[in-house]
Write a structure and sequence with these properties.
The structure is a homodimer.
Chain A (H helix, E strand, L loop, with lengths): L2 E11 L7 H6 L4 E5 L4 H4 L2 H11 L3 E5 L8 H13 L4 E6 L1 H13 L26 E5 L11 E6 L4 E6 L7 E4 L9 H21 L5 H23 L4 H14 L13 H12 L4 H17 L3 H12 L8 H18 L16 H11 L15 H10 L2
Parallel strand pairs in A: 1-8, 2-3, 2-4, 4-5, 5-8
Antiparallel strand pairs in A: 6-7
Helix pairs in contact in A: 4-5, 6-7, 6-8, 6-10, 7-8, 7-11, 9-10, 9-13, 10-12, 10-14, 11-12, 13-14
Chain lengths: 395, 395
C-alpha cells in the first residue's frame, strides 16, 4: 500500500452554516464571482441570503448565473471573463455539482493561457492541468457529487460532445461550506440520484481498486451503509434535516479522497455514464443508476469474491464458501432493488436512450480513458465490445 | 451534526518512503532539528539513513536525541534551545509518539514567549495554545499514537507529575512520512500496545461522543475491525510488512480527525491513563489496555445500547432486543480477551501499580479535564469516586 494524500479544504458543516458565508469568503478575497445554476437558488431565497451575507461582510459580488446541468466549456469561458472583467479575487460556487465543477475550472481559467479545454483530460497526449486558480468557496445545494471537497471537475465540450474531467491541487476549494438545510428543497428524484451518485463514487474504488486495502473497504462499506440507511428517509421527507445532514455527510466523504486512498481505481462506471449524459439530457446520478448494476453484473464474473464481500457486508447476504458467484448476484440484485425503491431508473429505456448509438458511447468512453491496450481502465479492463454489451444489457 | 474540520498534513505512505526524507524536508527548510528517542533508530540504522537522505538533499542537521517515553517539559525546552542555537528552520521527528509530540511542542516553543508549560492544557484558567511553530515533518517508527497526522501533543511536567495535552492548528505537521518498514523492528509487546492505543483512540469518540453520528460509527467500527484483523499478524511476525502497513494505516486514521468528527467526545480513558503513566514508568498503550475495559464496564451501565452495537458490529455478538446489557458485557469481555491475546496487560497489578494512590490519580485526572460540575467529561461524566472505582476494579 503506497500513496500520497493531502486534502487541504476546510470543511464547515451544519444546518445554518450559510449565515457564515460572508465572513468565510471575506477571509479569501474582497470581490467575489458568485456562480449559480438554473435558478432554484433564486426561487428558494438562498441566493438573496448568500448575497446579503457577502455584502454585510464587505464582499462585492459579480454574478455568473445559468450553469447548466452538464456544464459546458463555453460557460466556463463566460464565467472566467466575468471574473476577469470585474477583478474578482475569489469564486463562490452556490449550487450542485455542475455549478461547483464549472466554478473550479473558471477559477483556473482566469489565469490559464490558451484554450481551457486543454486542462481537461480528454485523451490528448499532453494534458495541461492548471497550476494556479483563484481561491474557491463551495456551497453545495445538493448532496451528490462530493465536488465541494475535492480537486476534480467534470466539463463537457459541446462542440465534440465529450464530457471529461480535470484534477489539480489548485482546484481544492479553500472552504466547503456545507449547510444541509439548503438541500431540503431538492425534489425526491434528484435526492435519489444524489444518493446513487455518492454510492457509485464509493463502489468505483471498492470494486475497481487494487487488492489489499482492508481499511478502505471498511470505510467504503460504512459510507454505503449510511447512504442506504438515510437516503430513503431524505427521499421520503425532504424536510427531515437529520436525514439531509447524514446523506450530505456521506456524499462529502464519498469523494474527498479517504475512501479511495491507495486503491488506484479506474472509474469505468462514471466514464461510461459521462458519455450518456454528454449525448442526452440525463441527470448524472440517474445515468449511474442504470450503468452501475449492469457494469457490476459484467465485472462480478471475473471477481466474484469481491462482489460476495459487497453482498455480505452491505446487504447482509449470508455467503457460504464456494457460493461466491450466486452471492455476488444476490448482492447486485439487492443493490438494484434499493435504487428502484428510492425512485432511480435502472434501464436505459427509462432515460429514453435506445440502442442506436451504443458503439458511439463506447468509443467516446475509450477516447477519454484507456490503457495501453486501448481498454477502459477498471477491474476488468473493458474493450469497446464489453462496454456495448454492458449498455445493451441495460436497455 | 455541526463541525468544522481541516487537516492540512500531506500524508506520504508506503514501504521505502524513508528514502524521500531529504527532498521532503528540503521543501520546508534548510536546517533541520532531528529529534529522536531512546536510541533504537541508531541501533537499527534508520538514523544514519535519515541523516544521509537529509544531507544528500542539502539539509544540515542538528540533533536532539534522548526524548523519553513520556516526554518531559525539560526535554522540550532543551530541544527548542538546540533549534534556536543552530538556526533551525524545520523540525524532523524520527521516532514514536513521544518523539513526535515533543517535536511539535519544541517547534512552537522556539517562538513562544514565556514558559512552554503555559501552552499545555492542565486546568489553568487561560491556556495559551501556540499560534506559530516551525514546519514539522514526522517520521513515525511505531504505529500507535496517530501524532504523525494531527495537531495534538502530550507532555509531562516532571515537577508536578502532570501529563496533559495541547492542540493547535500550527502543530499540524506539514508532511507525515509514514514508512511501515520502520516499524518492523518494534518488539511484539510494544506492537500490541500500539494496537491498543489506536483502538482506544477510536473507542473514545465512539463511546463518548454525541448521538447521531452514524457514518462516524461505521468508520470507527471499520478501523477497529482492521486493527483486530491485522494487529495480531503484526504482533506474531514483525517482519510481515503487509500487516505492519495495515496496522499503521489504521493508526494514522484513528486519530487524524475523521473518525472523531462532530462527536465532541471527551477522552476519559486517555485522561485517566495519563495520570498513571505520569506517576509510573508505564507504556501508554499498556496503561490503556488496563483502563479501557474497566472504564467500558462502568460506562456500559448507563448506555447499554451503544455498547451492544459495539459488541454486535465489531465482535459479531448476536444481540436480541431487550438483551443489550448482556450483549454489552459480552462485547467488552471479547475486547478484553483480544487485548490479552496479543499480549497486553489488563490488570493494574501487571503494571506493578497498587491501590495506594488511586485517589491521587483521580484528582490529577480531574485537574486536567473537568466539566462545570467538576466531573471528568465523557459518557457518563465521572466523579472522583467513579474514577477510583474504575481503577479499583482493574487492580
Amino acid at each position: 500500500m503506497k500513496f500520497e494524500f493531502q486534502n487541504p479544504t476546510r470543511l464547515v458543516f451544519g444546518a445554518g452554516s450559510l449565515a457564515r458565508l460572508g465572513e468565510t469568503v471575506r477571509a479569501q478575497g474582497k470581490r467575489a464571482l458568485l456562480v449559480t445554476g438554473g435558478g432554484s437558488v433564486k426561487r428558494t431565497g438562498v441566493f438573496d441570503r448568500a448575497v446579503a451575507s457577502l455584502k454585510e461582510a464587505g464582499v462585492s459580488v459579480a454574478e455568473c448565473a445559468g450553469v447548466e446541468p452538464n456544464p459546458r466549456l463555453s460557460t466556463v469561458v463566460r464565467g472566467a471573463r466575468i471574473a476577469r472583467d470585474n477583478g474578482c479575487d475569489v469564486i463562490v460556487a452556490l449550487g450542485g455539482g455542475s455549478t461547483m465543477d464549472a466554478s473550479k475550472v473558471m477559477a483556473a481559467a482566469v489565469f490559464y493561457e490558451g484554450d481551457p479545454w486543454d486542462m481537461i483530460f480528454h485523451g490528448q497526449e499532453k494534458p495541461r492541468p492548471p497550476t494556479r486558480a483563484l481561491p474557491i468557496v463551495t456551497v453545495p445545494t445538493l448532496a451528490a457529487t462530493g465536488s465541494e471537497m475535492n480537486s476534480g471537475a467534470v466539463i463537457t465540450d459541446e462542440k465534440t460532445t465529450i464530457k471529461s474531467f480535470v484534477r489539480a491541487d489548485c482546484l481544492y476549494p479553500r472552504v466547503a461550506l456545507v449547510d444541509p438545510e439548503l438541500t431540503m428543497t431538492v425534489p425526491p428524484d434528484q435526492t435519489a440520484y444524489g444518493v446513487c451518485d455518492l454510492i457509485t463514487h464509493v463502489t468505483e474504488g471498492y470494486l475497481n481498486g487494487v487488492d489489499g486495502t482492508p481499511l478502505q473497504d471498511r470505510w467504503a462499506e460504512g459510507t454505503i451503509l449510511t447512504a442506504i440507511e438515510w437516503g430513503p428517509k431524505a427521499v421520503a421527507n425532504g424536510r427531515d434535516v437529520e436525514a439531509r445532514a447524514q446523506v450530505q455527510g456521506a456524499s462529502v466523504v464519498a469523494l474527498n479522497g479517504w475512501v479511495q486512498i491507495a486503491t488506484n481505481a479506474g472509474f469505468p462506471v462514471h466514464t461510461i455514464e459521462h458519455t450518456l449524459s454528454a449525448h442526452h439530457d440525463v441527470a448524472h446520478g440517474a445515468g449511474l443508476a442504470v450503468v452501475n448494476p449492469a457494469w457490476m453484473r459484467f465485472a462480478a464474473k471475473s471477481r466474484p469474491a469481491r462482489f460476495a464481500q459487497f453482498a455480505e457486508r452491505v446487504f447482509g447476504v449470508a455467503c457460504r464458501p464456494g457460493e461466491e458467484a450466486s452471492c455476488a448476484r444476490e448482492g447486485i440484485d439487492r443493490f438494484e432493488a434499493f435504487l428502484r425503491s428510492i425512485g432511480c431508473p435502472t434501464r436505459l429505456s427509462q432515460l429514453e436512450i435506445g440502442d442506436d448509438k451504443l458503439q458511439q458511447y463506447a468509443r467516446d468512453a475509450l477516447r477519454i480513458a484507456h490503457d495501453q491496450q486501448g481498454r477502459l481502465p477498471g477491474r476488468p479492463p473493458m474493450t469497446e465490445q464489453d462496454i456495448v454489451e454492458v449498455l445493451r444489457s441495460a436497455l
